[in-house]
Design a protein that fits this description.
This protein is of the alpha/beta class and 466 residues long. The chain is built from 18 helices and 13 strands. The chain has helices at 2-12, 18-50, 70-74, 77-89, 92-102, 131-144, 146-149, 176-201, 208-214, 244-263, 280-293, 310-314, 324-328, 334-337, 359-364, 366-376, 394-399, 416-429; strands at residues 54-65, 109-115, 121-128, 156-160, 169-172, 219-224, 268-273, 298-302, 338-341, 344-350, 381-385, 404-410, 432-441. The strands form two sheets. An eight-stranded mixed β-sheet has the order 6-13-12-7-11-8-10-9, with helices on both faces. Strand 9 and strand 10 (344-350) form a beta hairpin. The longest helix has 33 residues, at 18-50. The radius of gyration is 38 Å and the shape is rod-shaped. Residues 1-12 and 445-466 have low confidence and may be disordered.
């Protein structure tokens, strides 16, 4: 309860994990770039089709006192007069007056006015799609303006400093490429910003420090990414191609797991995860191998009867009728299904040869618990590879027959809320949750040197009947 009360304050104090953000930016960079390119191309095509060149006719005006006296010109009210004139020239009133005088429904362009800095001069601009319309619009503005001056100022007037001439018309070429590039940059910036926001607001487990703050269980160790070597089907500590760094990390995990189990005199350990593709089966097999290396008698059982994987990791052929499902159904004996390998002196395995429908019924039967008790009485440890807890109920059923649980948590994939909910479910079954292992993690500065990637081991869940 205290952990849950403290979690919000802990989450707010968590530092920004730049490597995590960079990983997700790199992961999504193709989508972001493609979106920016598509928007940029679409904007260019649309703008190039509808955006034409524009023409601006301009005239310089000066605001002077009607009596043209020097005192009047120096008066501070001149600035007020200039401001008022600018407001009118840029207002809807002038546009409405032009439409009345010209008997048109709307202006063929735009009127704008601006003051020349530190002078009593105003530049009046009329912009339209053709030079003729721009000049006509400027003329209409000059003719319509005097009818409005009586509403706001009578002491000052305009004097034209330039003539109304086509020589004062400037052409502005359309710039569809510029605006398309700007649109693409905005999409790119938006994609990057959204990715950063999602990274900062997510509850995915992205490093060990954050995991310790948001999870209700301890993280026993971190297993980093390692690339499989050529022709290597799975990363096993018994394989000479596997790096020493991976073996060292697995060894530390095994030590922690063994220590925690020995404290409570536990023998049956189930290894599970929340989702698929978290590397659970590889961790399970290597734990069993490491314990057997230490001279412990270990039984490794593939309890995933929906997507069995242990035999594939060992690259072992499983004959018909020699799987766990055959044993639980009473069609085979333990002697029939138990496998030995001369390479692993203290390791025994029970594989599952194929996926079956509704394996939960076999796991709920008392025969499964009886089998585990029988095996545990002869072995030092019984390691169970189970389906993901968040996908099917098999793992929850198995937990009622196990002594302890190890959760495999894949970095950047598993959500803290899902893990904590799963821990609550496991607690209700009475099993001891030893903790989690952060798997497929990217390196941190305090770890030993390592390769960049871990060999991927994929499996999915589909129809139960498969």
């Amino acid at each position: 309860m205290n952990q849950e009360m403290n979690r919000p304050s802990q989450a707010s104090s968590m530092p920004v994990d730049l490597p995590y953000i960079c990983r997700h930016l790199w992961k999504n960079i193709f989508v972001i770039l493609m979106s920016a390119c598509i928007v940029g191309i679409a904007a260019f095509v649309g703008l190039d089709m509808y955006m034409g060149s524009s023409y601006t006719a301009s005239m310089n005006l000066s605001v002077i006192a009607r009596d043209n006296s020097g005192t009047r010109l120096n008066d501070g009210s001149l600035n007020t007069a200039i401001t008022r004139n600018l407001n009118v020239l840029n207002s809807d009133m002038l546009a409405e007056q032009i439409c009345k005088d010209s008997q048109i429904e709307r202006l063929p362009g735009t009127i704008s006015a601006s003051q020349v800095a530190d002078t009593n001069m105003i530049t009046l601009n009329a912009t339209a799609s053709s030079a003729e319309e721009a000049l006509r619009l400027l003329k209409s503005a000059l003719e319509s303006y005097p009818t409005l001056t009586g509403y706001f100022e009578s002491g000052y007037m305009f004097r034209n400093l330039t003539a109304l001439s086509a020589d004062n018309i400037q052409k502005q070429d359309a710039r569809p490429l510029y605006y398309a590039a700007l649109a693409a940059l905005l999409v790119l910036a938006g994609g990057v910003g959204l990715t950063v926001f999602l990274c900062m607001s997510t509850d995915k487990v992205y490093n060990r420090q954050q995991a310790a703050m948001v999870l209700d269980i301890p993280v026993l160790n971190t297993i980093h990414y390692f690339r499989k070597k050529k022709n290597q089907k799975a990363i096993l500590i018994s394989d000479s191609a596997t790096t020493g760094d991976y073996e060292e990390e697995l060894d530390r995990l095994t030590t922690r797991v063994e220590s925690e189990m020995n404290k409570n005199d536990q023998k049956v350990l189930m290894v599970t995860s929340i989702r698929e593709n978290e590397g659970k089966s590889t961790i399970t097999v290597n734990l069993a191998l490491n314990l057997s290396r230490r001279g412990k008698k270990v039984m490794l059982i593939d309890c995933d009867m929906r997507r069995p994987a242990v035999a594939k990791i060992f690259d072992a052929e499983v004959e018909e009728g020699t799987g766990l499902s055959d044993l639980l159904a009473g069609d085979s004996t333990l002697k029939d299904v138990m496998r030995r390998d001369s390479r692993y002196k203290y390791l025994r395995c029970v594989f599952q040869n194929k996926a079956i429908a509704e394996p939960d019924k076999l796991l709920e039967d008392e025969a499964f618990k009886t089998l585990l008790r029988k095996i545990a009485s002869r072995m030092d440890y019984v390691i169970l590879d189970t389906p993901p807890l968040g996908i099917v109920r098999d793992a929850e059923i198995i937990s009622a027959a196990a002594d302890s649980v190890l959760l495999v948590i894949r970095q950047d994939l598993a959500h803290a809320s899902e893990i904590n909910d799963a821990v609550d479910v496991l607690d209700e079954t009475g099993v001891t949750v030893l903790g989690g292992v952060l798997n497929m993690a990217f390196g941190d500065k305090n770890s030993v040197s390592r390769n960049k990637r871990y060999g991927k081991y994929y499996y999915g869940y589909g129809d139960k009947s498969k």
